[in-house]
Amino acid sequence: MKKALLLPAICLLLASCGGGNSEKGKNPYQQDGDSKKEANGNPSYDPQRGEGKFTHVDVSPTLNAEMAANGKKAYDVKCNSCHKLSAEKLVGPGWQGVTSRHTAEWIMNFATNTDAMINKDPKAQAMLELCMVRMPNQNLSDEDARSLYEFMRQNDGVK
Amino acid sequence: MKQLKYLAFTGAIALVVGINACKPKNAGDAVTGDAASKAYVAPGKYDEFYNFVSGGFSGQMSVYGLPSGRLLRVIPVFSMDPEKGYGYSEESKPMLNTSHGFVPWDDLHHTELSQTNGEIDGRWVFGNANNTPRVARIDLTTFRTAEIIELPNSGGNHSSPFATENTEYIVAGTRFSVPPDYENGDIPINTYKKNFKGHISFISIGKEGQMDLAFQIECPGINFDLSHSGKDKSHGWFFFSCYNTEQANTLLEVNASQRDKDFVMAVNWKKAEEYLKAGKGKKIPTKYAHNVYNEKTHTATSEIKTEVTVLNAMELKDICYFIPCPKSPHGCDVDPTGEYIVGSGKLAALIPVFSFDKIQKAISDKAFDGDYQGIPVIKYEAALYGEVKKPGLGPLHTEFDGKGNAYTSMFVSSEVVKWNIKDLKVLDRAPTFYSVGHLCIPGGDSRKPNAKYLIAYNKITKDRYLPTGPELAQSAQLFDISGEKMQMILDFPTIGEPHYAQAVAASVIKDKSVKFYKIEENTNPYVSKGEGTTKVERKGNRIDVYMTAIRSHFSPDNIEGIRMGDEVYFHVTNLEQDWDVPHGFAIKGALNAELLIMPGETQTLKWNPDRVGIFPMYCTDFCSALHQEMSGYVRVSPSGSNVPLMFSTGKNLPESDSTKKN
User: Do the Cβ atoms of A132 and B531 come within 8 Å?
Assistant: First the structure.
C-alpha cells in the first residue's frame, strides 16, 4: 500500500520537476500499473490474474473437502459480515457464482492484496462503484486464501 | 507565524531547487533560513526521532516526532482518557485500580526508556505517578500501558522511574516522607523527625517486562527528589538528590532552605541485593495494587499484594552514603562514562560535579564528616571533582552529548548552558522561553547519546503562541546541537506540563509496531469471532450483547426486549484485520461514555438504561463511505414488560407491535 502510494508520488514529483507535463484526469495508479515490471517477472498487469503473489493455482476438478471446511471457518470469522453465500449483495457482492466470474488467482490475489487491486483492477474498481465500501484487507494467510477459494467452489456446487 | 510559514516555504524551495541554488548572504539569513529547513519534515515523510514526553498533570504520556514537533499520540497511563476509552471500558478499568480504589486522574512526571548495556533498546518506556505513587510500563510495540505497580510506604513518587543500565530495576524514591504503612499513622504531624521515613523502591523488570517490587530501602525521613543510575564503571550504584534534610513539616519554602548543603545519596544496590539474599530484609505487611493488561484477552486484571521486603539503611551498613550537595539539589545526573555525577542545587550559584572514583576512595578511606541519622556523610571535597562557577541562576537538570559536554537548564535565568565536563568551563548559552525545567537529548541519560537535538521543556508559556484564554498550551523548544553553538529551530506546544522526556531514533522502534490484533488470538471471554456467533443473552437483570463491528455495520443492530432495571454490557468485537481501522461505539444516554475498538479487539461498555424508549447507537470513528449508516437501535421497555428478547441484523420485519395485547 505504502509503495503503491509512494511510487506515483515520486513519478509526479519527477514529472513536475521535468517541466510540468502533468496529465490531468489520468489515474496515477493505472499509469503506474501499466508500466511497472513485477518482481516475479510478470511484464504488465494481467486483469485475469490480478496483482499479488499468486501466479498459478493448481485446482483439481474435484473438491478438497477438508480444505473447504477450513475455508468455511475463515469465512465465518472474516467474511460473512459482508458477503452472503447467495447471489444477494450485502455490503459486498454475494458469493454465488464467484468462481465462474473470476479465476482462482484473481480471487486469491484480491483477498490478500486488496488495496493494490482496488487501486488498479478494473473489475474491482467497478465493484467499488457499486458497493461504495473498500473491501477491508482481512490479513488472510496464503493457506486461508486457498481454503476460502475451495469453500467458494463448494458453494458453487463443485463436489 | 506568517514569517515561520514563509521560512518553511523557502526552506522547502531550497530543498527542491537544490543546495547550491541560493547560498545565504549573511549570518542572519543563515541562522533563520537554516532553522526552518532543519525542523521541516515534508508531508508523508517520517520524523527522525520519537520523543516520549511526560504529560504532567494530565497523567498521560505524549509522543512527538522530532524534528517536526508533531504530536503523534497521547498514551493514556494514569488518567482516564475519553479519546481511547481507557478507564471507561470494563476491560481497562482495572488499570487505574490502587489500594485506595479507582484513581481516575494522576500526575505523570518522568519518562524513561528501557536500556540494554546502557543503550536505549526500544522495548518499553516507563512513567511515574507522582500523587498516588505508581510506576507504569508502556509496551512500545503497541504504545499502550501494559502494567502498573503501586508503591507502598511512599507519598509523592518523584525520583522515578529511572532505570539501571540493563533495566534490571526501575527505582522510585518517595518525595514526601511519611510514617510507614505498617506503623500507626494517626500521630501529630510535628513528630516528623521521629516517625516519618523515606522509602526507596526497587522494582525488578523481568524478561517480558514483568514488574515486581523486589525490595525497598528504608532511609531517614527527608525528601527524595530526582535520581539516575550509575553506568559502566558505576553500574551497581544509584544516585538520588535529597532536600529538606532540615526535616521540616511546614512552610518548606523557608524551613527546608536553611542548610547550606543537602545531599546526593549514593546507593550501592548490589550491596542491597547481597543483604536481600542473606535474608536481612524484613517482610512488612502492606497493601499495593499490581495491574496487568493482557493483549490476548484485551483485559486488565488488578491484584492487591500484601507484603514487601524492606532493608533498613540505618542498620545495614554500606548500602547508602550521603554526599553534601549545595542548596536543595534537584537534578541528579550521571554522565555517559559513569564517572561524573552532576548535582544541581536549585538555589546554588554553582554546579558541583562529583567523581565516582573519588567517592569510592572516600568510602574506603572513611573520609566521612560523621553521619546523618546513622548514614555516613562523605566529606564534600573528598567526593568533588570540581564546580562549574557562575553557570547561571537556578540550575535544575543536566543532559549529556557523549562528546564530553553537559547541558544544564537554568530555571531562574531561563537559559540552557553548555559546559565541558573535564575543564568545567561554560561554552555556550541559549535563552529559552520561559523558565526551562527538564532537558532532553536523545539517549542523553544513557551511555550512548545521539546528540543531534536538545529539547527544552519550559514551565511558562506566556506569549509564545496565539492566546487561548487563561489556560495555555505548554511550551517546548527544539535546539540543533550538532555544531558548537546551540541553535533554536522550533517551538512546539505540549500537553499537561512536560517534565522529563526521552527520545530515541525512530529506527529503534518503528518497525516493531503492531498494526492490529489477530482475531484468531483474541481470548476475551466475550469475543464474537464472526457474525454467526453474535447473540444477546439475559441472566436475571444482566444482559450481555455479543456484538461485532466491521465496515460498516454492527451485528446485531436491532435489539428489543431490554427492560428498565437491566444492566446491559455491550461486548463489541472489531472484526477488521487491517491497520488503522478502529470502530467506535456509542449509545445515547450512556453515563460511561464510549468505546474505541482496535481491529481484532473486544471492548465492553456498560449501560444502564434510564428510561423507556428507543435508543440509537452508532460508530463514532469514521470508517468508510457508509460510516453514517453504521448505526442501530435498542428498544427499552418498562420493567416487567413481556417484550421478548430479540436481536437481528439486516431484517426489516413487517410492521408490528409486539406490545399489542390481543
Answer: no
CA distance B293 to B137: 10
The CATH number of the domain where B644 resides is what? 2.60.40.420
Q: Are residues B477 and B495 in the same domain?
A: yes
B490 in a structural domain: yes
Task: Enter the pTM of the model.
Answer: 0.88
Question: Distance between CA atoms of A106 and A112, rounded to whole angstroms?
Answer: 10
**Phi–psi pair at B32, nearest 5 degrees:** -70, -50
My answer on whether B87 and B57 are in the same domain is: no
**Relative orientation angle of helices B2-17 and B27-39, to the nearest 10 degrees:** 90
Chain B interface, best mutation among A79, A117, A133, A151, by max B CB count within 10 A = A133
Q: What is the DSSP letter of B227?
A: E
Evaluate whether residue A82 is within a structural domain.
Answer: yes
CA-CA distance, B515 to B527, in Å (whole number)? 19
Interface of B with A (CB under 8 A): 16, 44, 516, 518-520, 529-533, 548, 550-553, 555, 575-578, 581, 624-626, 650
The DSSP string of A44-79 is S--TTT-SSS-S-----SS--HHHHHHHHHHHHHHT
- By Cβ distance, the residue of A17, A132, A138 closest to B626 is A132
Q: Which helix (H) or strand (E) holds B3?
A: helix B2-17
Q: Quick one: A23 and A83 in the same domain? A: no
Which among B488, B512, B536 is the end of a domain?
Answer: B512
Residue type for position A89? K
Each residue's pLDDT tens digit, B212-240: 999 999 999 999 999 999 999 999 999 99
Q: Which domain holds residue A1?
A: 1-36
For residues B662 and B655, give the distance between their C-alpha atoms in angstroms, rounded to a whole number: 16
**What was the pLDDT predicted at B348?**
86
Q: What is the mean pLDDT of residues B154-167?
A: 97
How far is the C-alpha of B184 from the C-alpha of B534, rounded, in Å?
54
B7 in a domain, yes or no?
yes
CA distances for A92 relative to A124, A129, B648, angstroms: 11, 11, 19
Asked whether the predicted pLDDT for residue A40 surpasses 60, the reply is: no
